[in-house]
Design brief:
Length: about 220
């Protein structure tokens, strides 16, 4: 089984568990899985050099610290500092953006939203826009921007762009969160419009989408 297939299997499993966890927590779990599996998927040659081996080992330590912080066994400040050190020591390796990704979550967990946004911007700048992970992380950035008053309008626009981008394989996810933003802000009519377009979009593509089920639950 390829690393990409492993990623999709775990992704599908997490979707099945979506009703057991809130939306934001679900996204963090998916991103964590993406980090672990994308290391193997995009880094088949990382073991070719001692430097890359060392970077991957430190990244694994950061992931372990991250998991501990999620259940309350470690403070998020420890994750932040460990990832900061990991990035400083391995900024020239393939692991570099993933240190920043974990650090962004650590910042957000401590309500350091501006710092989290800076870290996510660095992550996206380091990835090719053609990467399958790019829209996933871009959606995460847009959601974070919605929580920053001065960035809220830009965050909404980014979600709209992601939702309307026909080349974005994750645009159904962006559309769901765009509708959810309107829903939580008591703009039910706008939320209904976005979700109905999401349902119609996927029906026209004759493809399955777990985000449709979530949207349909809200519409009912």
């Amino acid at each position: 089984m390829t690393e990409r297939n492993k990623f999709m299997d775990i992704y599908d499993y997490l979707l099945e568990q979506k009703e057991k966890i809130d939306v934001n927590r679900w996204l963090i779990v998916v991103l964590g899985a993406a980090v672990i599996l994308s290391v193997g998927y995009y880094g088949y040659n990382w073991y070719k050099g001692n430097r890359e081996q060392a970077a991957q080992k430190i990244l694994a330590e950061c992931m372990q610290e991250f998991a501990s912080a999620q259940v309350g066994d470690e403070p998020w400040s420890s994750v932040e500092q460990l990832c900061k050190l990991g990035y400083q020591e391995n900024s020239d390796t393939n692991c570099a953006p993933y240190f920043l990704l974990l650090q962004a979550d650590a910042f957000a967990a401590q309500d350091k939203k501006d710092e989290a946004l800076t870290a996510l911007n660095s992550v996206l700048n380091s990835l090719s826009s053609s990467s399958e992970l790019y829209p996933l992380f871009a959606t995460k950035r847009a959601l974070l921007m919605l929580d920053i008053e001065t960035q809220k309008d830009a965050g909404i626009e980014q979600l709209k762009q992601l939702a309307n981008d026909t080349s974005n394989k994750q645009r159904d996810m962006a559309a769901y969160y765009l509708g959810l933003y309107y829903w939580h802000n008591h703009e039910q009519e706008q939320a209904h419009k976005v979700w109905q377009e999401l349902i119609a979009m996927k029906q026209s593509e004759q493809s399955q989408s777990p985000w449709i089920a979530l949207a349909q639950e809200k519409l009912q």
